[in-house]
From TrEMBL:
It comes from the Bacteria. The keyword DNA-binding applies. The keyword DNA-binding applies. This is Antitoxin HipB.
């Protein structure tokens, strides 16, 4: 599973899910699904989300840590 920090990054900027949706051109429901790990965005969308936040993609998305 790919982890994401979208909710944290939104909170740091005082953005709502609707704000992020508008900035990325996706629906608010898509933002909710990504935040709740019900939907993994395409690589293109992942890069767009990172660009909107003004950070590297690895700041937003990262592989799940192994629980060994």
């Amino acid at each position: 599973m790919i982890q994401n920090r979208i909710k944290v990054l939104r909170a740091e900027r005082n953005w709502t899910q609707a704000d992020l949706a508008e900035r990325t051109g996706i629906s608010r429901q898509a933002v909710i699904s990504i935040e709740k790990y019900k939907y993994t965005p395409s690589l293109e969308l992942a890069f767009k989300i990172a660009q909107v936040f003004g950070v590297e993609i690895t700041t937003v998305f990262s592989p799940e840590e192994d629980s060994k």
